[in-house]
Design a protein that fits this description.
By secondary structure, the chain is of the alpha/beta class. The radius of gyration is 24 Å and the shape is flat.
């Protein structure tokens, strides 16, 4: 899930002041931001109270099921069309992806109320850890399911560094060194000790990323039809 934290309130106010926005609609997210306690109903109502204390009117609010889902967010915007129309701006308590989806769903100026921090694992309620950078060149098959680039504070692909001491990380001294953990797990699993990994291929992390499953399925279906036609045609020609 995407982990977020509240943006500085003074910056949000500056955004609204620059626009001269006195009436605001607030949008949250029912998934990541709700779990992170940054953009669910409770946080929206808190933001509503703060805006009203600042002398602004909140025309309405909504918590979409998944803010980064364009179709769902557009539907949510249609449900609250009147409240959105009455607003001068929209304050969005979601990750950056959600902010952009809301911006695509309304013609009103949209401002983020949160900062996107990292892609996180949920350790337990309220505790999150960054374990993946979505690099597009995964090495978890070789590193026993532990990402060295993300979980090593120095981002070392091959380690440990010279600062490791007694198996502990030099930076996060209360934690075991990532590379020590990797070698230990490989040994426990009866696997070969990790060899030196080649440099990351950052060309595999293209920006902006895009995956079109519908198009891929159409291409695959067309290829099957083409193969079938070739097979049938070949037989008919003989």
């Amino acid at each position: 899930m995407i982990i977020t934290r509240p943006r500085e309130w003074s910056r949000i106010m500056a955004n609204l002041d620059e626009l001269g926005a006195k009436r605001v609609f607030i949008m949250g997210c029912g998934q990541c931001a709700t779990v992170a306690d940054t953009g669910g109903e409770k946080e929206i109502l808190q933001a509503k109270a703060k805006l009203e204390q600042e002398g602004r009117e909140v025309t309405g609010w909504a918590v979409g099921e998944v803010a980064c889902h364009l179709g769902g967010t557009k539907l949510e915007a249609r449900k609250h069309h009147g409240d959105l129309a009455a607003a001068d701006a929209v304050l969005v308590l979601t990750c950056g992806a959600g902010v952009q989806t809301v911006a695509d769903s309304t013609d009103k100026p949209v401002f983020p109320g949160l900062e996107s921090v990292f892609l996180g694992n949920v350790i337990r309620h309220g505790v999150f850890e960054e374990r993946c950078q979505m690099c597009g060149d995964c090495v978890l098959d070789a590193t026993a399911g532990i990402c060295p680039v993300t979980t090593c504070p120095k981002g070392l692909l091959n380690g440990p560094c010279g600062g490791m001491w007694n198996g502990k990380c030099e930076v996060l001294t209360d934690r075991d060194c990532t590379h020590v953990r990797i070698q230990r797990r490989l040994t426990e699993q009866g696997r070969n000790v990790l060899a030196v990994l080649p440099p990351k291929d950052f060309a595999k992390k293209l920006k902006p990323g895009s995956v079109n499953l519908r198009q891929d399925k159409k291409r695959a279906a067309a290829a099957v039809r083409s193969d079938d036609a070739a097979s049938t045609g070949g037989g008919a020609g003989e």
